[in-house]
Amino acid sequence: MRILAIESSCDETAAAVIEDGRKILSSVINTQVAEHGLYGGVVPEIASRRHTENIVAVAEKALSDAGMTLEEVDYLAVTAAPGLIGALLVGVNFAKGLSLATGKKLIPVHHLKGHIAANYLSHPELEPPFLCLVVSGGHSHIVEVSDYTKFRILGKTRDDAAGEAFDKAARAMGLPYPGGVHLDRVSKEGNPKAFKLPKPKVEGCPLDMSFSGLKTAVVNILHNAEQRGEEINIPDLCASYQDVICHALVDRTMLAAKEGGYKKIVAAGGVSANSGLRALLERECKRRHLELFVPDLELCGDNAAMIGSQAYYEALAGKFADLTLNARPTMPIDEDFE
Ligand code: KG4
Ligand code: ZN
């Protein structure tokens, strides 16, 4: 089964052709990072316009890179939630148009389920059930994946997502957008124990987390130093901040693994590219004899290959959409499209 998948939930216009959920025949990503960087964050209106301008060429390139015509594709798939509504709508309407024109069935895909499926592309042997730490720019979840299309949230952030926490602190420290990857890079030269920062815990809910207080603590450290005319060691602050976030994420994942008796741990989403998170997950999983799966670095961020992978399993489960499909800016991962 060959699926043409479309992704446009944020600031990447992407298309890919995926065979049987596991093989990438092509994957094209047109990123808008440089343009949004001028404003220090994603400008939704610009994102929608760029998607509209680029989506046809991106989809055509995905088909030509795969050496296929649209007629040779079996199904169409599209990210329909969650994300920026204007951005999602471009992909959803484009995919609906292709479906109407070709008569091919349409598979709606939840963006976070796609991030999890990136691991099926990186690890051909990986199969559910497993426990997954999903960490992106908009979400931080600990999720039980009992089957390819069965998800249950065990823990989540009460406020900022991990990626958002990285980006906001990086911005306050004067690092370029998107901050996460730069904070990760600068951390490598710093001492993770130099600053004592608050832990992102939520009283009474050991698997939930809260990052907004941590981010505020960093902003206060920077402001106080500025007012006193003191120099802050930015690599030390980056390293300390990253260390607290990574420990919060990994501690909760390990606790959930112990409580649920999971043997396989999976990481997913843009933040799963973080070097500190990958190293800590590896160390803690090894200590507990748990099997760890993380996506290849190029599959951590937004792409359409992961959408095509999840779409394959959605199709096997008969989860198609008709032309009444609408995009949704928010949608829990344990919900299905109507
Ligand atoms: O999954 P993703 O590409 O888009 C969303 O679905 O949100 O995640 C983007 C997030 C951004 O916040 C970005 O800064 C963060 O992932 N990110 C990182 C790293 N690479 C990307 N955060 C920390 N360390 C990294 N190396
Ligand atoms: Zn994403």
Give the biggest sheet.
5 strands, mixed
Per CATH, which architecture of the largest domain?
2-Layer Sandwich
Bound compounds, each kind once, are: 5'-O-[(R)-(carboxyoxy)(hydroxy)phosphoryl]adenosine, zinc ion
Class of secondary structure makeup: alpha/beta
**Average pLDDT for all residues:** 97
CATH topology of the largest domain: Nucleotidyltransferase, domain 5
Instruction: List the uncertain runs.
Output: none
Number of strands: 10
Q: What percent of the residues sit in helical stretches (DSSP H or I)?
A: 40-55%
Rg on CA atoms, Å:
20 Å
**Alpha-carbon distance between the two ends:** 24 Å
Fourth-tier CATH superfamily name of the largest domain: ATPase, nucleotide binding domain
How many distinct helices? 10
- Shape descriptor reads globular
* Sequence of secondary-structure elements: EEEHHEHEHEEEHHHHEHEH
Spatial strand arrangement across the major sheet: 3-2-1-4-5
Number of domains: 2
Percent of sequence in beta strands: 15-25%
Q: In CATH, what is the class of the largest domain?
A: Alpha Beta
Name the descriptors:
single chain; 338 residues; alpha/beta; Nucleotidyltransferase, domain 5; 10 helices; 10 strands; binds 5'-O-[(R)-(carboxyoxy)(hydroxy)phosphoryl]adenosine; binds zinc ion
Show the helix and strand layout.
Layout lengths: L1 E6 L4 E8 L3 E9 L1 H5 L6 H22 L9 E7 L3 H18 L3 E5 H12 L7 E6 L4 E8 L2 E7 L5 H11 L6 H9 L24 H17 L5 H27 L3 E5 L6 H13 L3 E3 L11 H12 L22
Parallel strand pairs: 1-4, 4-5, 6-9, 9-10
Antiparallel strand pairs: 1-2, 2-3, 6-7, 7-8
Helix pairs in contact: 2-3, 4-10, 5-6, 5-7, 6-8, 8-9
The structure holds 5'-O-[(R)-(carboxyoxy)(hydroxy)phosphoryl]adenosine and zinc ion.
The site of 5'-O-[(R)-(carboxyoxy)(hydroxy)phosphoryl]adenosine has 20 residues, from helix 5 and helix 6.
